[in-house]
Amino acid sequence: MLSQARNGSQSKDDLFIYRLKNKQLAQLTSTKKKLSHTYEFQGKLVHDRNFNNIEKTVQESWAAAVILRNASVFGETIYILCAKFAKIWLKNNGSEAFNFFAKEVVENVDATGQFARVFNKDITSILMSSEYSAEIFAKKILLVKAMGEFIINHAINDAGKYAFLFKDNVPPVVKIVQRNRPDSLFTVRGRSGVMSNTYREDIGILDKDVFSQLDPKLQKILTINGLTKNRPLFRTRISHKLADGSPAFVERMFDRDNPLLASISGSTACLFTAADVLDDKLSQSQLDQITLSAIALFVGGGYHSVHEIINIRSPHLNVIASIESQMRLKNRGAELQEYVAALHASRDLLR
After folding, report:
1. What top-level branch of life does the organism fall under (predicted)?
2. In 156, 171, 224, 320, which residue has its Cα 20 to 30 A from 33's Cα atom?
3. What is the pLDDT of residue 196?
4. How many CB atoms lie within 10 A of CB 117?
5. What is the torsional sign of CA 205, 206, 208, 212?
6. Strands (E), the chain
7. Torsion (CA) 237, 238, 240, 241 in degrees, nearest 10
């Protein structure tokens, strides 16, 4: 066990992941600064140098890639949700409401440059697929997210009209959305717009200069066939403290020196909204697995950083520890050590 690292029997990579876990857990519970930040707009925002440090962005990109590459370890809950979604999708009654739902989902997932893009003709096969590949896994997450976005944008306003999405004709949709989009996180978000989009073949939130400096083994881990995207570059600001004196989410990110890409993740709220509608009896371990899936898609696609995601439903989650424990539980310890060794080597190169 990694908790026994002091006995000297662990490898250098075991000790490295042990330090990563505990360092990350400490960062979740402590605040380094107590400064009042003013609005700050960056003329040229660089993802891994503004408001954070390079080591964390490498680590978060690595985590997204490892999760994606191990769909059979981390994807069970998403695959179950997609099977439920498939039943809804295949019961197309030809109504105006269903046709509008289908159109919105297609436009959401079949957009040029979208990470894990799903073509209209492939939606049914993706939802029903049992293939545990990184590409299928990512596409499934995207489809569930698209359903949740529709619920938030449309179905919440007329649950009866879109009853085909729910088990009951009058579901507690408003409560579901409120649970996944808490005002305390979404009142002050910090994102003011997308500056540009850049074609990228790598997984994660690194800029090209940093990616080019990584160990070749990590570069390979962060490059997954079939998963390219036009990665957005956001203009992000640090917000004033709220009127009641509590810090805005973006301030907490700054205080803890965490990567800040686009502030709290609305896409993760969409994913969890759909999950709650599809299955209202999800356990905390399943919710945490959905959070890891969100990291795979939204950090993997370059849309968000880890802490912008985990705060929705899993603020307690230690991502490194979860990856390590689930990989070992599924007897994937050897692969884990290969991933860690590549991360370890790249950390040394970047110093």
Report:
1. Bacteria
2. 320
3. 81
4. 18
5. negative
6. 191-200, 229-236
7. 140
The CA distance from 67 to 62, in Å, is: 9
Q: Is the pLDDT of residue 3 over 50?
A: no
DSSP helix/strand/coil, 197: strand
Residue 323 CA neighbour count, 13 Å, CB half:
27
Residue pair 143/152 in contact by the 8 Å Cβ criterion: no
- The residue segments making up the domain with residue 46 are 1-351
Of 240, 270, 87, 99, give the one whose Cα is nearest residue 177: 270
DSSP for 332-349, please give it: -HHHHHHHHHHHHHHHHH
Looking up tokens 């356990």 gives 283
Determine what percent of the chain falls in helix, strand and coil, rounding each to the nearest 5.
60, 5, 35
Strand-pairing partners, residue 233, are: 196
- Does the model's pTM come out above 0.85? yes
Question: 241 pLDDT band (50/70/90 cuts)?
Answer: low
**pLDDT tens string 31-62:** 444 443 333 334 444 444 444 578 888 999 99
